[in-house]
TrEMBL record:
Primary localization: other
Keywords: Cell junction, Cell membrane, Membrane, Signal, Tight junction, Transmembrane, Transmembrane helix
Annotated membrane topology: Multi-pass membrane protein
Cell compartments where the protein resides: Cell junction, Tight junction; Cell membrane
Keyword Transmembrane helix: yes
Bilayer-crossing regions: 87-106, 118-140, 162-187
GO CC list: bicellular tight junction; plasma membrane
Function: Claudins function as major constituents of the tight junction complexes that regulate the permeability of epithelia.
GO molecular function annotation: structural molecule activity
PROSITE patterns, A to Z: CLAUDIN
Name of the protein this chain belongs to: Claudin
């Protein structure tokens, strides 16, 4: 039972960590959500902004000036939280691999292996909370920006909605949290 639970938690943690990494690296945290006849599809990410021509599929991206340049707070905070979540999830995966019962490392001391799994669960939980805060922070900021423009009757021609990278970050963080709960609460 314990080995099956460990492998399930490891699989979920691995998939969720990949989701977090993809969310951090990809460019569609915000997408244009106009229902008009658009000839281009615009995505804004944490690192650059991309435009795809819908007629011929050509995609062009503009890198943001510099990592150290003045950026909006939502980008800086989300970058920081997502990178920290990625690092914590990666460290938790390394500890979890060494703590799995099916791995021969420290096979003669099951108490240490169990503590490694528990520690991996705690680290994974911390990473999942940071990733969820970063993803939700960005989504709420996009919503508030749009609501403020609507309340002031300002129409800029393009209106942005949550992109798939934002949803991927939320899904990865939630999966890491569930794996953390399995490792910290259910394993003992």
């Amino acid at each position: 039972m314990s080995a099956a639970l460990q492998v399930t938690a490891f699989g979920l943690a691995l998939l969720s960590t990949l989701f977090l990494l993809l969310a951090t690296c990809t460019d569609c945290w915000m997408v244009n959500a106009d229902d008009s006849l658009e000839v281009s599809h615009k995505c804004r990410g944490l690192w650059r902004e991309c435009v795809t021509n819908m007629q011929d599929g050509v995609r062009t991206c503009d890198q943001y000036d510099s990592i150290l340049a003045d950026h909006p707070v939502k980008i800086v905070v989300t970058r920081t939280l997502m990178i920290t979540a990625d690092l914590l999830a990666g460290m938790a995966l390394a500890a979890l691999v060494l703590g799995l019962d099916c791995i021969m490392f420290l096979k003669e001391d099951p108490c240490v292996k169990l503590k490694m799994c528990y520690g991996a669960g705690v680290i994974l939980g911390a990473g999942s909370i940071l990733g969820l805060i970063g993803s939700v922070w960005y989504a709420v900021d996009v919503y508030l920006e749009r609501a403020m423009l609507v309340s002031h009757n300002i129409f800029l021609g393009v209106h942005y909605d949550f992109g798939w990278s934002c949803w991927l970050g939320m899904a990865g963080s939630t999966g890491c949290f569930v794996a953390s709960v399995l490792l910290t609460c259910c394993l003992y």
